[in-house]
What we know:
Elements: E1 10-12, E2 19-22, E3 25-31, H1 37-40, E4 44-48, H2 54-79, E5 87-88, H3 94-118, H4 125-143, H5 158-167, E6 170-171, H6 177-202, H7 222-227, H8 231-245, H9 248-253, H10 255-266, H11 276-287, H12 293-296, H13 302-312, H14 320-339, H15 351-357, H16 370-376, H17 393-405, H18 409-413, E7 420-423, E8 426-431, E9 452-455, H19 458-462, H20 465-473, H21 494-509, H22 519-530
Parallel strand pairs: 5-6
Antiparallel strand pairs: 1-2, 2-3, 3-4, 7-8, 8-9
Helix pairs in contact: 2-8, 3-6, 4-6, 8-10, 10-11, 17-22
Amino acid sequence: MIQNTATKPVVAVPGYSRLFRRGAIYYFRVVVPRELRSAIGKSEIVKSLRTANFNEAKRLVAFESADADGLFHSARVKLHRVKSPRREVSKLSDAEIHRLVMEWFIQIEKRSEDSWQNEGRHLALDERQEALENLGIEETALTAVWGDGGACQPIDASRDLDQFLSQRGIDCARDSAEYRKLTAVFHRGRIENVRRDIARIEGKPRPAEDLMFRDLSAYTLLSAAQDSITLGELLNRFLAYVQAKRSETTFSTYQTPARVMREVLGEATPLHSITRGSIDRLFDLLRNRPQNTSQRYRGLTTEQAISAAAARGDNLKLSPKSLENYYTNILAVFNFAVDEKLIAENPAKFRSLREQFRTRTVRKKALFSPEQLSQIFHSPVYERPFQIGDAHSGRFFVPLLALFHGFRCNEACQLYTEDVKQERGIPFLAIREEREDGSQCEKRLKNEASKRNVPIHPILLRAGFMEFVAERRRDSASPRLFLELPLGKTRRYSNPFSKWFTRYLRSIFDVKPAATFHSFRHHFRDALRAGRVGTYG
């Protein structure tokens, strides 16, 4: 507990290192790294999340945490004077060049709009007329085709282009095809900007005449977002979002793809500079990445592991399904960036790449045969009826809960006695993360849709389940239903239990069957579908 000068103490929320509560209100708090305190000007950051709702606080603290990490990164960059390398325009894709043009046009439109709001709307009538005449001359100079004998030469956009490329750290030879192409597009943008200035002064709505700039204005957020975030900052924000909104298992599946993206694409790489070519290189490396790299080639980057595997003659690569999962996860990262308006389009979302990783065969989930189910539920654990005081109550009831209710392993293992409830004479199980009083505990669900109330199957009632619950409620030392089931290293009860169940199946059948504990859930699903129950009807 952190004592505060305020009347109410600030209490840490278990499981969330940067989430605290003072009274009913949640707060974000993070200690500033010692080496950054002089640059940031404070030793810690504390901010009220202005909510008493825990789920909302989890969502908000994730974004505050990502912003703080971004602030720390920016401070480190300034502290060590890290500069982004200059880029050659010839190495940019057409899509990236288009984004650069959009950034520039938004920039000049913002200047024009600010000038109009601050000064232009206050011009006297004669001053407006003079401004319109000047803009008309500029428009003529931009659009007219002048002959060799003309009194003057048409305005071009080379000055705008040179200044913008210099700001962005991009080199482009003036005699190159790319420079000529960009000059032509910047010229079109300047014409569109002048015509919009005329419309502002005239006070007449004027639709965009150049379709390239139709959807862009001074208020488009694209430029600021693209210019302010790196890949590392995106990954921090995305992972914080996943951790707050998804299960721990789902969160863990993004760890390796995020690590590989940081290694290959570069954590400090500006997000908007990641092109299709960058993505192609990333997946070329993934195709050659050895299996279980983090265990078998501990401490090595992906490229180093590939070289080490080649030297050893190790030809074990990622399976097609693993590659498909990597592609799906990386696609999700960039989809998140698009949804957050950090980039205009997903650089990994193109058909030819998707087709490369789409597995052609859909494997049906393995199920137990009727004979195997009979063997399981006539095995030593079930050779006699359940008796109160049995030291292995979880081993007896958890498989039955999964088979007859469709529970995931962790959902059954983590039950509390207070989760067994009754309404209008019908006993049911409340599958939820929170305690009865609304407080949080170690229980976890896969997602929000997993929260549900499930009537207890008659098979469980006949097996003595309610009597067992009544006995457990007499134990005031722990609220858990299956007290003997341990919590795993991943903070889930399912990990130790599923490992025991796998060993148990092997002892029953001599060899491990294709079906697993999760197959019980699929048996339940198929039974619902066959009985035309609910959405399965």
